[in-house]
């Protein structure tokens, strides 16, 4: 009898076979239908552990993530160009089909940020902003009206598209700038930021992600917050995974949130510390799909639901637990 995990792998493999032979991943009816089918297959809660997949499936997953990243970039470029043709693109952001997802994700990230920051940030960096820097724009407009943003991306063409979106808005253009740079070349400048956001597709495999995280940790200011996007369960076929217990050396892990709705990305909040804090002080028996981890001395158990619907965040405060 085929179990749910085997059925999921079979479904994803079949969709990958169709996507991998497409001549182009630019938005089209066929491309949109296949990626929609893939996302819908991966959204339902799943206990699948991608680290335990066979080498063959692991290889397929790595290639699929690359294809998803390429398709996402082309989709964002397509809609950024459409928006950039308007006199004031900001007034037309809802044209982008996933705009509401960004509204929800930005609310989630802001709510988690506000719970762990002593004050709202004055300067924020977003690394991997791409041609459609929707997170920066939504955060600046809706949640952080006095904050200055610097968007970093290594693709100059993507940056030109992104800059057009804010050029017609006096407030945003005064508070948001875009710089073309590989994150590994950004050094002392990172110390200027209270919060650093790292996009999900910066670092497409574990080794590259580890190099990026080590670099950011080396140059961020002590006490600054790092906001990360990962994925959980079957969504790991769509984006790279950050293991919050193993990958965040030199950071204090504050919260992890796994959405269970159409918001795909897990959100991780960590704080840069002067000396490394062990990040394995985590209750590994906590229920998957909903858990946030708080490795600090505290005794309360809190339920937190920032989006006001089915997804639930649980904070497990661990009292003096040792690794």
Automatic annotation (TrEMBL):
Entries under InterPro entries matching the protein: Nicotian_synth, SAM-dependent_MTases_sf
GO terms under biological process: nicotianamine biosynthetic process
EC number: 2.5.1.43
Reaction(s) this enzyme catalyzes, per UniProt: 3 S-adenosyl-L-methionine = nicotianamine + 3 S-methyl-5'-thioadenosine + 3 H(+)
GO molecular function: nicotianamine synthase activity
Keywords in alphabetical order: S-adenosyl-L-methionine, Transferase
Family membership: Belongs to the nicotianamine synthase (NAS)-like family.
Function: Synthesizes nicotianamine, a polyamine which serves as a sensor for the physiological iron status within the plant, and/or might be involved in the transport of iron.
Protein name as annotated: Nicotianamine synthase
Gene coding for it: LOC120273353
